[in-house]
Specification:
The longest helix has about 40 residues, at about 125-165. The N and C termini lie far apart (about 70 Å). This protein is flat. The chain has helices spanning about 5-15, 20-25, 35-40, 50-60, 65-70, 125-165, and strands spanning about 85-90, 90-95, 100-105, 110-115. Helix content is about 50%, strand content about 10%. It has six helices and four strands, in the order αααααββββα.
């Protein structure tokens, strides 16, 4: 890909995120911003590497990795890996899990409604009891596995001592 196109792509991303190159580099976990400045420098023959594209798309999953590497397609992905996203004046808003005791309802219009769950509502008490029983069963299994591990560790220590005596 020609250098002018690489510079354009990197500039668009930084501009879209409303960051400067140093802030962008820091957001990607780079110790120094030089890697970003090298991509933006017309005299350097540095492009967006696969590693850099991976870092960008990991940190900003709504940025199209193929666009970073080829310049083809759209810079912004409208939906990404099952997350619901909507474009709102150029900013992607990904929905997150609701806090405990609440649920999010996404209406067909894209509007999100948060409903608080009433703890006194016993309509799901059977499911709650089943889950609590499952937790107890898993804790018992973990306890048994811990005991097995301890006994095997003890056996290993005894066998090591026997080997050391020989």
């Amino acid at each position: 890909m020609e250098k002018e196109k690489v510079i354009k792509i990197m500039g668009e991303i930084i501009s879209y995120l409303k960051l400067n190159p140093k802030q962008f580099a820091e957001s990607l976990g780079f110790d120094r911003p030089q890697a970003i400045y090298d991509v933006l420098n017309p005299s350097k023959k540095v492009g967006i590497s696969k590693n850099m594209a991976e870092k960008i798309s990991s940190k900003y999953p709504y940025i199209n990795k193929a666009y970073l590497l080829t310049g083809e397609g759209n810079m912004i992905i409208k939906e990404n890996k099952g997350n619901v996203a909507q474009e709102n004046t150029g900013v992607m808003n990904y929905l997150t899990m609701p806090e405990s005791g609440a649920q999010k309802i996404i209406k067909p219009t894209g509007e999100v409604e948060i409903q608080r769950l009433d703890p006194s509502d016993k309509s799901n008490s059977g499911e709650l009891d089943r889950l609590q029983q499952r937790i107890q069963d898993l804790e018992r299994i973990i306890s048994e596995k811990d005991a097995t591990i301890k006994s095997k560790d003890d056996l290993i220590c005894v066998l090591k001592e026997m080997l050391n005596r020989q």
